[in-house]
Specification:
By secondary structure, the protein is an all-alpha fold. The chain has two domains: 50 residues, no CATH class; 392 residues, MFS general substrate transporter like domains (Growth Hormone, Chain: A, Up-down Bundle). The chain contains 19 helices and two strands. The two termini are 20 Å apart. InterPro entries: FLVCR1-2_SLC49-like, MFS, MFS_dom, MFS_trans_sf.
Protein backbone atom coordinates (compact mmCIF):
# COMPACT_ATOMS: atom_id res chain seq x y z
CA UNK A 1 0.00 0.00 0.00
CA UNK A 2 1.50 3.40 -0.93
CA UNK A 3 2.26 5.97 1.74
CA UNK A 4 -0.35 8.57 0.77
CA UNK A 5 -2.94 6.09 -0.45
CA UNK A 6 -6.31 6.09 1.30
CA UNK A 7 -7.51 2.83 2.85
CA UNK A 8 -11.25 2.32 3.26
CA UNK A 9 -10.67 -0.27 5.95
CA UNK A 10 -8.55 2.08 8.02
CA UNK A 11 -10.36 5.31 7.25
CA UNK A 12 -7.13 7.02 8.26
CA UNK A 13 -5.01 9.88 7.13
CA UNK A 14 -2.27 9.93 4.55
CA UNK A 15 1.36 10.79 4.65
CA UNK A 16 3.85 12.76 2.69
CA UNK A 17 7.39 12.10 1.52
CA UNK A 18 9.25 9.29 3.23
CA UNK A 19 11.68 9.78 6.06
CA UNK A 20 11.61 6.38 7.79
CA UNK A 21 9.69 3.33 6.72
CA UNK A 22 7.88 1.18 9.29
CA UNK A 23 5.38 -1.66 9.13
CA UNK A 24 2.47 -1.45 11.56
CA UNK A 25 -0.02 -4.22 12.20
CA UNK A 26 -3.19 -4.16 14.25
CA UNK A 27 -5.44 -6.73 15.83
CA UNK A 28 -8.58 -4.68 15.15
CA UNK A 29 -11.07 -6.20 12.68
CA UNK A 30 -10.73 -5.27 9.02
CA UNK A 31 -7.30 -3.77 9.58
CA UNK A 32 -4.46 -4.32 7.13
CA UNK A 33 -0.70 -4.40 7.33
CA UNK A 34 0.26 -0.87 6.33
CA UNK A 35 3.44 0.86 5.33
CA UNK A 36 3.70 4.22 7.05
CA UNK A 37 6.39 6.79 6.41
CA UNK A 38 6.94 8.67 9.61
CA UNK A 39 8.20 12.06 10.56
CA UNK A 40 9.99 13.92 13.30
CA UNK A 41 8.67 16.77 15.46
CA UNK A 42 11.12 19.15 13.81
CA UNK A 43 9.99 18.43 10.25
CA UNK A 44 6.62 16.75 10.43
CA UNK A 45 5.13 15.03 7.38
CA UNK A 46 1.73 13.42 7.02
CA UNK A 47 1.38 9.85 8.32
CA UNK A 48 -1.44 7.34 8.42
CA UNK A 49 -3.51 7.67 11.61
CA UNK A 50 -6.45 5.78 13.03
CA UNK A 51 -8.93 6.10 15.89
CA UNK A 52 -10.03 2.95 17.72
CA UNK A 53 -13.31 2.41 19.55
CA UNK A 54 -11.29 0.90 22.38
CA UNK A 55 -10.07 4.38 23.32
CA UNK A 56 -13.37 5.07 25.09
CA UNK A 57 -13.07 1.91 27.19
CA UNK A 58 -9.54 2.95 28.20
CA UNK A 59 -10.45 6.47 29.28
CA UNK A 60 -13.61 5.39 31.14
CA UNK A 61 -11.76 2.58 32.94
CA UNK A 62 -9.10 5.06 33.98
CA UNK A 63 -11.83 7.40 35.20
CA UNK A 64 -13.27 4.54 37.27
CA UNK A 65 -10.15 3.79 39.29
CA UNK A 66 -9.40 7.51 39.55
CA UNK A 67 -12.92 7.92 40.98
CA UNK A 68 -12.37 5.18 43.56
CA UNK A 69 -9.12 6.78 44.69
CA UNK A 70 -10.44 10.35 44.81
CA UNK A 71 -13.44 9.23 46.91
CA UNK A 72 -11.05 8.18 49.66
CA UNK A 73 -9.23 11.51 49.67
CA UNK A 74 -12.19 13.36 51.16
CA UNK A 75 -14.08 10.57 52.98
CA UNK A 76 -12.49 11.49 56.32
CA UNK A 77 -12.51 15.26 56.02
CA UNK A 78 -16.19 15.64 55.17
CA UNK A 79 -17.16 13.95 58.46
CA UNK A 80 -14.22 15.38 60.36
CA UNK A 81 -16.07 15.66 63.68
CA UNK A 82 -17.29 12.02 63.55
CA UNK A 83 -13.82 10.56 62.98
CA UNK A 84 -12.44 12.85 65.70
CA UNK A 85 -14.94 11.27 68.11
CA UNK A 86 -14.31 7.69 66.97
CA UNK A 87 -10.51 7.74 67.04
CA UNK A 88 -10.22 10.36 69.85
CA UNK A 89 -7.86 12.55 67.81
CA UNK A 90 -7.70 16.26 67.00
CA UNK A 91 -9.28 18.03 64.06
CA UNK A 92 -5.79 18.70 62.69
CA UNK A 93 -5.05 14.94 62.71
CA UNK A 94 -8.13 14.30 60.56
CA UNK A 95 -7.11 17.17 58.26
CA UNK A 96 -3.91 15.21 57.64
CA UNK A 97 -5.97 12.32 56.28
CA UNK A 98 -6.59 14.61 53.30
CA UNK A 99 -3.24 16.37 53.31
CA UNK A 100 -1.37 13.05 53.21
CA UNK A 101 -2.55 12.82 49.58
CA UNK A 102 -0.80 16.11 48.88
CA UNK A 103 2.35 15.38 50.87
CA UNK A 104 2.92 11.90 49.38
CA UNK A 105 2.69 13.25 45.85
CA UNK A 106 5.61 15.67 46.16
CA UNK A 107 8.57 13.28 46.67
CA UNK A 108 7.23 10.46 44.50
CA UNK A 109 6.04 12.32 41.40
CA UNK A 110 9.42 12.40 39.65
CA UNK A 111 10.22 8.67 39.90
CA UNK A 112 6.62 7.84 38.94
CA UNK A 113 6.81 10.14 35.92
CA UNK A 114 10.06 8.44 34.90
CA UNK A 115 8.29 5.07 35.23
CA UNK A 116 5.43 6.33 33.04
CA UNK A 117 7.89 7.42 30.34
CA UNK A 118 9.89 4.19 30.47
CA UNK A 119 7.20 1.53 31.04
CA UNK A 120 4.07 3.18 29.62
CA UNK A 121 0.41 3.50 30.52
CA UNK A 122 -0.47 -0.13 31.25
CA UNK A 123 2.23 -0.71 33.89
CA UNK A 124 1.35 2.53 35.66
CA UNK A 125 -2.38 1.70 35.54
CA UNK A 126 -1.76 -1.74 37.07
CA UNK A 127 0.42 -0.33 39.86
CA UNK A 128 -2.10 2.43 40.66
CA UNK A 129 -5.15 0.17 40.81
CA UNK A 130 -3.34 -2.54 42.82
CA UNK A 131 -1.98 -0.17 45.48
CA UNK A 132 -5.35 1.57 45.73
CA UNK A 133 -7.00 -1.84 46.23
CA UNK A 134 -4.46 -2.74 48.95
CA UNK A 135 -5.11 0.54 50.78
CA UNK A 136 -8.85 -0.07 50.92
CA UNK A 137 -8.39 -3.48 52.56
CA UNK A 138 -5.97 -2.05 55.13
CA UNK A 139 -8.70 0.39 56.12
CA UNK A 140 -11.14 -2.47 56.57
CA UNK A 141 -8.83 -3.75 59.34
CA UNK A 142 -8.65 -0.33 61.06
CA UNK A 143 -12.19 0.00 62.39
CA UNK A 144 -11.31 0.12 66.09
CA UNK A 145 -10.84 3.29 68.17
CA UNK A 146 -7.20 2.47 69.01
CA UNK A 147 -6.18 1.73 65.38
CA UNK A 148 -5.93 5.24 64.01
CA UNK A 149 -2.37 4.45 62.84
CA UNK A 150 -3.72 1.56 60.74
CA UNK A 151 -6.31 3.73 59.01
CA UNK A 152 -3.55 6.30 58.41
CA UNK A 153 -1.43 3.52 56.85
CA UNK A 154 -4.30 2.59 54.54
CA UNK A 155 -4.77 6.23 53.60
CA UNK A 156 -1.06 6.51 52.87
CA UNK A 157 -1.29 3.54 50.48
CA UNK A 158 -4.19 5.20 48.66
CA UNK A 159 -2.30 8.50 48.55
CA UNK A 160 0.68 6.68 47.01
CA UNK A 161 -1.64 5.20 44.37
CA UNK A 162 -2.81 8.72 43.54
CA UNK A 163 0.72 9.63 42.41
CA UNK A 164 0.28 7.11 39.57
CA UNK A 165 -3.13 8.58 38.64
CA UNK A 166 -3.09 12.38 38.56
CA UNK A 167 -0.74 12.79 35.59
CA UNK A 168 -2.51 10.26 33.37
CA UNK A 169 -5.46 12.15 31.76
CA UNK A 170 -3.44 14.22 29.31
CA UNK A 171 -1.19 11.23 28.50
CA UNK A 172 -4.16 8.95 27.75
CA UNK A 173 -5.76 11.72 25.66
CA UNK A 174 -2.62 12.18 23.57
CA UNK A 175 -1.83 8.48 23.12
CA UNK A 176 -5.36 7.30 22.28
CA UNK A 177 -7.33 10.27 20.86
CA UNK A 178 -7.25 12.38 17.72
CA UNK A 179 -6.19 16.02 17.59
CA UNK A 180 -9.82 17.19 17.49
CA UNK A 181 -10.83 15.40 20.69
CA UNK A 182 -7.83 15.46 23.04
CA UNK A 183 -9.26 18.20 25.26
CA UNK A 184 -12.59 16.39 25.56
CA UNK A 185 -10.80 13.13 26.39
CA UNK A 186 -8.65 14.86 29.00
CA UNK A 187 -11.83 16.33 30.52
CA UNK A 188 -13.35 12.85 30.76
CA UNK A 189 -10.20 11.63 32.52
CA UNK A 190 -10.39 14.49 35.03
CA UNK A 191 -14.16 13.91 35.24
CA UNK A 192 -13.60 10.59 37.05
CA UNK A 193 -11.46 12.23 39.72
CA UNK A 194 -14.04 14.95 40.24
CA UNK A 195 -16.91 12.47 40.40
CA UNK A 196 -15.00 10.50 43.05
CA UNK A 197 -14.62 13.65 45.14
CA UNK A 198 -18.34 14.37 44.63
CA UNK A 199 -19.29 10.90 45.91
CA UNK A 200 -16.80 11.39 48.74
CA UNK A 201 -18.71 14.48 49.78
CA UNK A 202 -22.13 12.84 49.48
CA UNK A 203 -21.84 9.23 50.68
CA UNK A 204 -19.85 9.27 53.96
CA UNK A 205 -22.30 11.56 55.83
CA UNK A 206 -25.12 9.21 54.77
CA UNK A 207 -23.35 5.92 55.57
CA UNK A 208 -21.76 7.17 58.81
CA UNK A 209 -24.27 9.14 60.92
CA UNK A 210 -23.15 11.12 63.96
CA UNK A 211 -23.96 8.72 66.81
CA UNK A 212 -22.41 8.55 70.28
CA UNK A 213 -22.21 4.74 70.60
CA UNK A 214 -18.76 3.69 69.37
CA UNK A 215 -19.88 0.14 68.49
CA UNK A 216 -22.65 1.44 66.24
CA UNK A 217 -20.25 3.97 64.76
CA UNK A 218 -17.70 1.23 64.07
CA UNK A 219 -20.41 -0.77 62.28
CA UNK A 220 -21.28 2.17 60.00
CA UNK A 221 -17.62 2.94 59.25
CA UNK A 222 -16.98 -0.73 58.48
CA UNK A 223 -19.80 -0.79 55.91
CA UNK A 224 -18.28 2.21 54.12
CA UNK A 225 -14.82 0.65 54.08
CA UNK A 226 -16.06 -2.73 52.82
CA UNK A 227 -18.01 -1.13 49.96
CA UNK A 228 -14.93 0.84 48.93
CA UNK A 229 -12.72 -2.25 49.07
CA UNK A 230 -15.15 -4.27 46.95
CA UNK A 231 -15.32 -1.60 44.25
CA UNK A 232 -11.52 -1.16 44.22
CA UNK A 233 -11.02 -4.92 43.83
CA UNK A 234 -13.45 -5.15 40.92
CA UNK A 235 -11.76 -2.25 39.13
CA UNK A 236 -8.32 -3.79 39.66
CA UNK A 237 -9.37 -6.98 37.85
CA UNK A 238 -10.93 -4.94 35.02
CA UNK A 239 -7.67 -3.05 34.55
CA UNK A 240 -5.80 -6.35 34.27
CA UNK A 241 -8.20 -7.59 31.58
CA UNK A 242 -9.04 -4.45 29.58
CA UNK A 243 -6.34 -1.77 29.88
CA UNK A 244 -4.03 -1.63 26.85
CA UNK A 245 -0.75 0.24 26.46
CA UNK A 246 -1.43 2.12 23.19
CA UNK A 247 -3.15 1.68 19.82
CA UNK A 248 -1.22 -0.02 17.04
CA UNK A 249 -1.60 3.00 14.74
CA UNK A 250 -1.17 6.51 16.21
CA UNK A 251 -4.34 8.65 16.49
CA UNK A 252 -2.79 11.97 15.41
CA UNK A 253 0.14 13.44 13.49
CA UNK A 254 1.66 14.83 16.70
CA UNK A 255 1.55 11.40 18.35
CA UNK A 256 3.08 9.79 15.27
CA UNK A 257 5.99 12.22 15.55
CA UNK A 258 6.46 11.33 19.22
CA UNK A 259 6.49 7.60 18.48
CA UNK A 260 9.22 7.94 15.92
CA UNK A 261 11.67 9.74 18.14
CA UNK A 262 14.42 7.26 18.93
CA UNK A 263 14.97 6.45 22.63
CA UNK A 264 18.40 8.08 22.38
CA UNK A 265 16.74 11.39 21.51
CA UNK A 266 14.78 11.47 24.79
CA UNK A 267 16.30 12.17 28.19
CA UNK A 268 14.09 12.58 31.25
CA UNK A 269 16.51 14.95 32.99
CA UNK A 270 17.01 16.96 29.82
CA UNK A 271 13.23 17.19 29.46
CA UNK A 272 12.93 18.54 33.02
CA UNK A 273 15.63 21.15 32.29
CA UNK A 274 13.85 22.29 29.13
CA UNK A 275 10.57 22.62 31.01
CA UNK A 276 12.21 24.65 33.77
CA UNK A 277 13.54 27.08 31.16
CA UNK A 278 10.09 27.44 29.54
CA UNK A 279 8.91 30.73 31.08
CA UNK A 280 5.28 30.37 30.06
CA UNK A 281 5.13 26.87 31.54
CA UNK A 282 6.69 28.06 34.82
CA UNK A 283 4.00 30.76 35.08
CA UNK A 284 1.36 28.10 34.43
CA UNK A 285 2.84 25.83 37.13
CA UNK A 286 2.49 28.63 39.70
CA UNK A 287 -0.98 29.75 38.65
CA UNK A 288 -2.27 26.17 38.45
CA UNK A 289 -0.93 25.49 41.94
CA UNK A 290 -2.62 28.59 43.36
CA UNK A 291 -6.00 27.68 41.86
CA UNK A 292 -6.05 23.94 42.56
CA UNK A 293 -4.38 24.41 45.96
CA UNK A 294 -7.28 26.71 46.89
CA UNK A 295 -9.73 23.99 45.82
CA UNK A 296 -7.94 21.43 47.99
CA UNK A 297 -8.09 23.77 51.00
CA UNK A 298 -11.79 24.55 50.52
CA UNK A 299 -12.62 20.85 50.14
CA UNK A 300 -10.62 19.73 53.17
CA UNK A 301 -12.00 22.43 55.48
CA UNK A 302 -15.57 22.50 54.13
CA UNK A 303 -17.01 20.49 57.03
CA UNK A 304 -15.49 22.87 59.57
CA UNK A 305 -16.70 25.97 57.71
CA UNK A 306 -20.27 24.73 57.36
CA UNK A 307 -20.53 23.35 60.92
CA UNK A 308 -19.27 26.68 62.31
CA UNK A 309 -22.24 28.52 60.81
CA UNK A 310 -24.79 25.69 60.59
CA UNK A 311 -24.29 23.27 63.54
CA UNK A 312 -25.50 19.69 63.04
CA UNK A 313 -25.57 20.01 59.24
CA UNK A 314 -22.98 17.34 58.40
CA UNK A 315 -25.17 15.87 55.65
CA UNK A 316 -25.73 19.27 54.06
CA UNK A 317 -22.00 19.99 54.28
CA UNK A 318 -21.50 16.89 52.14
CA UNK A 319 -24.20 18.01 49.74
CA UNK A 320 -22.59 21.41 49.39
CA UNK A 321 -19.29 19.69 48.56
CA UNK A 322 -21.18 17.55 46.07
CA UNK A 323 -22.63 20.69 44.49
CA UNK A 324 -19.15 22.20 44.14
CA UNK A 325 -17.78 19.16 42.35
CA UNK A 326 -20.83 18.36 40.17
CA UNK A 327 -20.84 21.95 38.94
CA UNK A 328 -17.10 21.61 38.30
CA UNK A 329 -17.62 18.42 36.31
CA UNK A 330 -20.06 20.24 34.05
CA UNK A 331 -17.57 23.10 33.75
CA UNK A 332 -14.75 20.69 32.87
CA UNK A 333 -16.69 19.02 30.07
CA UNK A 334 -17.90 22.32 28.65
CA UNK A 335 -14.37 23.77 28.73
CA UNK A 336 -12.91 20.63 27.12
CA UNK A 337 -15.42 20.69 24.27
CA UNK A 338 -14.91 24.43 23.84
CA UNK A 339 -11.12 24.03 23.60
CA UNK A 340 -11.44 21.31 20.95
CA UNK A 341 -13.62 23.65 18.89
CA UNK A 342 -11.91 27.00 19.45
CA UNK A 343 -8.28 26.24 20.44
CA UNK A 344 -8.39 29.45 22.53
CA UNK A 345 -6.30 28.05 25.38
CA UNK A 346 -5.04 31.24 26.99
CA UNK A 347 -8.25 33.24 26.63
CA UNK A 348 -10.36 30.44 28.09
CA UNK A 349 -7.92 29.79 30.96
CA UNK A 350 -7.76 33.48 31.86
CA UNK A 351 -11.54 33.89 31.77
CA UNK A 352 -12.15 30.83 33.94
CA UNK A 353 -9.46 31.93 36.40
CA UNK A 354 -11.00 35.39 36.80
CA UNK A 355 -14.48 33.93 37.29
CA UNK A 356 -13.05 31.57 39.93
CA UNK A 357 -11.87 34.64 41.85
CA UNK A 358 -15.31 36.25 41.53
CA UNK A 359 -16.99 33.03 42.68
CA UNK A 360 -14.67 32.76 45.70
CA UNK A 361 -15.42 36.35 46.76
CA UNK A 362 -19.18 35.78 46.53
CA UNK A 363 -18.92 32.50 48.47
CA UNK A 364 -16.80 34.14 51.19
CA UNK A 365 -19.20 37.02 51.82
CA UNK A 366 -22.43 34.96 51.73
CA UNK A 367 -21.38 31.94 53.82
CA UNK A 368 -22.58 33.44 57.12
CA UNK A 369 -25.94 34.83 55.95
CA UNK A 370 -27.82 31.99 57.67
CA UNK A 371 -29.46 30.61 54.51
CA UNK A 372 -28.18 27.24 53.31
CA UNK A 373 -29.80 27.64 49.89
CA UNK A 374 -27.58 30.68 49.29
CA UNK A 375 -24.51 28.63 50.18
CA UNK A 376 -25.58 25.94 47.72
CA UNK A 377 -25.90 28.51 44.92
CA UNK A 378 -22.62 30.29 45.59
CA UNK A 379 -20.73 27.02 46.13
CA UNK A 380 -22.07 25.71 42.81
CA UNK A 381 -20.92 28.83 40.97
CA UNK A 382 -17.49 28.58 42.62
CA UNK A 383 -17.16 24.89 41.74
CA UNK A 384 -18.17 25.41 38.09
CA UNK A 385 -15.11 27.57 37.48
CA UNK A 386 -12.62 26.42 40.16
CA UNK A 387 -12.96 22.70 39.42
CA UNK A 388 -13.65 23.34 35.74
CA UNK A 389 -10.16 24.83 35.54
CA UNK A 390 -8.44 21.45 36.10
CA UNK A 391 -8.48 20.08 32.51
CA UNK A 392 -7.71 23.54 31.12
CA UNK A 393 -4.43 23.58 32.99
CA UNK A 394 -3.49 20.08 31.79
CA UNK A 395 -4.20 20.76 28.14
CA UNK A 396 -2.64 24.23 28.13
CA UNK A 397 0.50 22.67 29.63
CA UNK A 398 0.68 20.03 26.89
CA UNK A 399 0.38 22.75 24.24
CA UNK A 400 3.11 24.89 25.82
CA UNK A 401 5.54 22.00 26.28
CA UNK A 402 5.11 19.76 23.17
CA UNK A 403 6.92 17.48 22.34
CA UNK A 404 7.87 16.89 25.98
CA UNK A 405 6.13 14.01 27.78
CA UNK A 406 2.58 14.79 28.90
CA UNK A 407 3.21 12.86 32.11
CA UNK A 408 6.13 15.14 33.00
CA UNK A 409 4.25 18.40 32.42
CA UNK A 410 1.15 17.12 34.24
CA UNK A 411 3.30 15.85 37.10
CA UNK A 412 4.89 19.25 37.63
CA UNK A 413 1.48 20.94 37.60
CA UNK A 414 0.13 18.50 40.18
CA UNK A 415 3.25 18.83 42.32
CA UNK A 416 2.68 22.58 42.48
CA UNK A 417 -0.97 22.00 43.39
CA UNK A 418 -0.02 19.65 46.25
CA UNK A 419 2.52 22.09 47.68
CA UNK A 420 0.09 24.99 47.62
CA UNK A 421 -2.70 22.69 48.85
CA UNK A 422 -0.77 21.79 52.01
CA UNK A 423 0.24 25.41 52.65
CA UNK A 424 -3.25 26.77 52.06
CA UNK A 425 -4.99 24.06 54.09
CA UNK A 426 -2.77 24.57 57.14
CA UNK A 427 -2.80 28.38 56.92
CA UNK A 428 -6.53 28.69 56.22
CA UNK A 429 -7.29 26.22 59.03
CA UNK A 430 -5.30 28.30 61.53
CA UNK A 431 -6.87 31.54 60.26
CA UNK A 432 -10.36 30.01 60.69
CA UNK A 433 -9.47 28.91 64.23
CA UNK A 434 -8.35 32.42 65.27
CA UNK A 435 -10.21 34.85 63.00
CA UNK A 436 -13.19 32.99 61.50
CA UNK A 437 -14.21 31.62 58.11
CA UNK A 438 -14.46 34.99 56.32
CA UNK A 439 -10.82 35.81 57.00
CA UNK A 440 -9.81 32.32 55.89
CA UNK A 441 -11.65 32.64 52.59
CA UNK A 442 -10.30 36.16 51.96
CA UNK A 443 -6.83 34.64 52.40
CA UNK A 444 -7.53 32.37 49.40
CA UNK A 445 -9.04 35.23 47.37
CA UNK A 446 -5.78 37.18 47.61
CA UNK A 447 -3.83 34.33 46.04
CA UNK A 448 -6.47 33.75 43.37
CA UNK A 449 -6.10 37.43 42.41
CA UNK A 450 -2.33 36.95 42.10
CA UNK A 451 -2.92 33.87 39.95
CA UNK A 452 -5.31 35.73 37.65
CA UNK A 453 -2.77 38.49 37.05
CA UNK A 454 0.03 35.98 36.39
CA UNK A 455 -2.14 34.05 33.91
CA UNK A 456 -2.38 37.20 31.83
CA UNK A 457 1.39 37.09 31.30
CA UNK A 458 1.46 33.54 29.91
CA UNK A 459 2.38 33.48 26.22
CA UNK A 460 0.02 31.32 24.13
CA UNK A 461 2.70 29.26 22.36
CA UNK A 462 0.55 26.36 21.07
CA UNK A 463 3.28 23.98 19.88
CA UNK A 464 1.18 20.84 19.53
CA UNK A 465 -1.37 22.64 17.36
CA UNK A 466 1.45 23.95 15.16
CA UNK A 467 2.88 20.45 14.71
CA UNK A 468 -0.47 19.12 13.49
CA UNK A 469 -0.98 22.11 11.18
CA UNK A 470 2.52 21.84 9.67
CA UNK A 471 2.01 18.12 9.01
CA UNK A 472 -1.28 18.77 7.24
CA UNK A 473 0.19 21.65 5.26
CA UNK A 474 3.22 19.64 4.11
CA UNK A 475 0.97 16.84 2.89
CA UNK A 476 -0.80 19.28 0.55
CA UNK A 477 2.40 20.52 -1.10
CA UNK A 478 2.81 19.88 -4.84
CA UNK A 479 5.57 17.31 -4.23
CA UNK A 480 3.08 14.78 -2.96
CA UNK A 481 0.72 15.37 -5.87
CA UNK A 482 3.56 15.19 -8.42
CA UNK A 483 4.32 11.67 -7.23
CA UNK A 484 0.76 10.69 -8.04
CA UNK A 485 -0.19 10.49 -4.40
CA UNK A 486 -3.58 11.42 -3.07
CA UNK A 487 -4.22 14.34 -0.74
CA UNK A 488 -4.94 13.62 2.91
CA UNK A 489 -8.42 12.86 4.11
CA UNK A 490 -9.94 14.19 7.29
CA UNK A 491 -9.36 11.96 10.31
CA UNK A 492 -12.45 9.80 10.79
CA UNK A 493 -13.79 7.99 13.82
CA UNK A 494 -13.68 4.24 13.36
Amino acid sequence: MSACENSEDLKGQTNGPALVKSNISTSEPAAEQIECKVFSPEAPQECTTRLYKRRWAIVFLFSSYSLCNAFQWIQYGIINNIFMHFYSVSSFAIDWMSMIYMLTYIPFIFPVTWLLDKKGLRVVALVASSINCLGTWIKVASVKPHLFWVTMLGQFACSFAQVFILGMPSRIASVWFGSGEVSTACSIGVFGNQLGIAIGFLVPPILVPNVEDLDKLAHHISIMFYITAGVATLIFFLVIIVFQEKPEIPPSQAQAAMRNMSPQEYSYLASIKRLIHNKSFILLIITYGLNVGSFYAVSTLLNRMIIDHYPGEEVNAGRIGLTIVIAGMVGSLICGIWLDKSKTYKQTTLAVYFLTLVGMLIYAFTLDLGHLWVVFLTAGALGFFMTGYLPLGFEFAVELTYPESEGTSSGLLNCSAQVFGIIFTICQGKIIDYYGTLAGNIFLCIFLLIGTIMTGFIKADLRRQRANQVAETNAKKPGCQEEGLSSPLKEDKV
